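Task card 7
Instruction: Convert sequence to structure tokens.
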Amino acid sequence: MFEAKQLTEHGKIYLEAANLLEKKGWCQNHSSNIFDQICLAEALHRSVYGSQESVNMNKVSDVRAWNPSFVALSKFIGEDVIRWNDTHGRTKAEVIEKLREAAYNP
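Output:
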């Protein structure tokens, strides 16, 4: 019989971030843009804190420190989340898919 996996706290955050990106839209190279689309790091931040306040992208070390889910996702991806999000050619669909994959693979 198939056994459903329990989501970890990180997994719940990743699914919430994926849902936010689907709802608001996704962007690169900024935490948000004039269309109120958000980047992956901003989606993680809002999923953790529920805040509309943007991540201070000038303090990348602070971003890593405030969020263990950020660090865990970077390890899962094998690269810094911000750098991965901002890679030329990356798509919204890839970002959302990676978040969902990470949610169920703690």
